[in-house]
From TrEMBL:
<dbReference type="Pfam" id="PF05018">
    <property type="entry name" value="CFA20_dom"/>
</dbReference>
<dbReference type="InterPro" id="IPR007714">
    <property type="entry name" value="CFA20_dom"/>
</dbReference>
<dbReference type="InterPro" id="IPR040441">
    <property type="entry name" value="CFA20/CFAP20DC"/>
</dbReference>
<feature type="domain" description="CFA20">
    <location>
        <begin position="1"/>
        <end position="183"/>
    </location>
</feature>
<protein>
    <submittedName>
        <fullName>Putative transcription factor iib</fullName>
    </submittedName>
</protein>
C-alpha cells in the first residue's frame, strides 16, 4: 500500500475524526460491534471496538489479507482508551531474514512469550486514555536478533476506543505534534 510512497515524519493509518476512518481497514465482528461515537472525556469522535471475545472482533489494515502496508517508519503510535476489559493489538513485520513475524501486545498476559513467528507481550495501560509508542526495530532486534525492514499489517482487537494510529520516523514530543496527533482534554 505504502511501499512506493516516500515515507518520512508522520504517516497516519487511522484517524477517528476523518470522513471515512475505516477506508483502509477491514472489520471482523462476532458477538460485539465496531462503531464511531463521541468520547465524553476528550469530547471527540472515536472508534469503539467491543467484543465478548478479544480474538473475534477486530479491525485490520490493510483490508485485504493479500496486501502489505509496506511501511518502513520505525515507530508505531496509538491513542487508545483503556476500557478496563481485555484488549490486544497485533503488528506483523518483515525482518532482514525475509521472515514475517508478529508482535501481539495484550493487557491480559503477564509474561512475554517468544516463539519463532510470534511474540506475545504484556501491555500495561493507565486508566483512561493512553498514548502508546512501539519501537519496532528495537523489539525486532531484542526479540529475534534481526533487523526490522517494514510493517506488513496492523490489527486492533476488542476492547478499546481508538482516536489515532500513526507511524513516525522518531518519537516526537507533544510540542512537536499537531493537535490531531495528541490527546487534548477540554477545559
Amino acid at each position: 500500500m505504502f511501499k512506493d510512497t516516500y515515507q518520512s515524519g508522520i504517516l497516519s493509518l487511522f484517524y477517528s475524526c476523518g470522513s471515512k476512518p475505516l477506508s483502509l481497514w477491514s472489520k471482523t465482528v462476532k458477538s460485539g460491534y465496531v462503531k464511531r461515537l463521541t468520547d465524553e472525556q476528550i469530547q471527540s469522535l472515536v472508534l469503539e471496538i467491543i467484543g465478548s471475545n478479544v480474538i473475534s472482533t477486530y479491525i485490520s489494515c490493510p483490508a485485504s489479507e493479500q496486501m502489505s502496508l509496506g511501511i518502513r517508519l520505525p515507530y508505531l503510535n496509538m491513542l487508545v482508551k483503556n476500557l478496563k476489559k481485555y484488549f490486544s493489538f497485533e503488528v506483523q513485520i518483515l525482518d532482514d531474514q525475509n521472515i514475517k513475524r508478529r508482535f501481539r501486545a495484550s493487557n491480559y498476559q503477564s509474561a512475554t512469550k517468544i516463539r519463532p513467528f510470534i511474540c506475545n507481550l504484556p501491555l500495561g495501560l493507565n486508566p483512561g486514555w493512553n498514548q502508546l509508542h512501539f519501537n519496532l526495530p528495537d523489539f525486532t532486534k531484542r526479540t529475534y536478533g534481526t533487523a526490522y525492514i517494514e510493517t506488513i499489517r496492523v490489527q486492533i482487537h476488542a476492547n478499546c476506543r481508538l482516536k489515532r494510529i500513526y507511524f513516525t520516523d522518531q518519537i516526537y514530543s507533544n510540542d512537536e505534534l499537531a493537535a490531531e496527533y495528541k490527546l487534548l482534554y477540554p477545559n
